[in-house]
Amino acid sequence: MSGAVLASVTAEAVANVDLDGARRRQRPESGVRLRRARLEDKRSAGHLLREALTPELADAVFGLGVEGAATSYLERLFARAGTLWSYDLVTLAEVDGQVAGMVSHAPWTELARRYRATMWAYLRVYGPLRIFRLLPRLRLLIRASPPVPVDHWFIPYLAVFPKHRGNGVAKALLARVHRRADRKSSACSLYVLADNRAARQFYQQAGYVDGTWEESRQLYELAATRGRLRMDRYVSGGSRTPSNASLV
């Protein structure tokens, strides 16, 4: 199980955020402040991640069904530096001094390097018995993971609290990621759930195009989703057909 593939599993977890800003016509949010996440943000991050997860995905990826336990586990994963879930990959958005949303982002190669630390974090947070039970689910999610070009930046998750959706928070977070990737002349990739039309429209407006699509009956039975679509954003003048990714 490679680090890069495991990164794609974590990306699935929060790809179900309903980014309905494309369909709402509220006044853009003023006073959005972006900053790097810190360890002490773990409580807000845990609640935000838990709210972004569907019950099916929460159980499929983490084996969690109890609200309080799920939030606690997510807080602990967020607090462990050097993993795929940790705060050191996250940019937070604040409105009036409160966390409104966040985005995780890094070069795909950096996510791959975090594989070993992530597995240790899972083991320490969940314990060996729960990890043993989760492994078959993780393997299924891995098989349903569209490949990501190794030279891309990747966005494991972007989540916004419901009261701030449609007000420009997600756009501000995404713009921060794009500026960093553009400085490296790197394309960006992310996953959306197949049936999340609002999210697809949102990302299309931000310059993303449809990439690899994966569908799985087992994935539907496990997580109530037909599959995942990888979407890509290419820098101006860059190639739109990377050699190691098939496009549809």
How would you concisely characterize the structure shown here?
The protein has 248 residues and is of the alpha+beta class.
Task: Describe the secondary structure blueprint for this structure.
Elements (H helix, E strand, L loop, with lengths): L2 H11 L18 E5 L5 H11 L2 H8 L4 H12 L11 E6 L2 E10 H6 L1 H12 L1 H16 L9 E8 L8 H15 L4 E6 L3 H9 L3 E7 L1 H7 L3 E7 L15
Parallel strand pairs: 4-5
Antiparallel strand pairs: 1-2, 2-3, 3-4, 5-7, 6-7
Helix pairs in contact: 2-4, 6-7
Task: Describe the overall structure.
The chain is an alpha+beta fold and 248 residues long. It contains ten helices and seven strands. A seven-stranded mixed beta sheet has the order 1-2-3-4-5-7-6, sandwiched between helices. A hairpin with a 2-residue loop joins strand 2 (90-95) and strand 3. Helix 2 (42-52) crosses helix 4. It is globular. Residues 1-5, 11-29 and 237-248 have low confidence and may be disordered.
Total beta strand runs: 7
Q: What is the element string, with H for helices and E for strands? A: HEHHHEEHHHEHEHEHE
The parts where pLDDT drops under 50 for at least 5 residues are 1-5, 11-29, 237-248
- Describe the largest sheet: 7 strands, mixed
Instruction: Please give the oligomerization state of what you see.
Output: single chain
The amount of beta strand, in percent, is: 15-25%
Distance between the ends:
26 Å
> How do the strands line up in the largest sheet?
1-2-3-4-5-7-6
Please state the structural category: alpha+beta
Cα-atom Rg, whole angstroms?
A: 17 Å
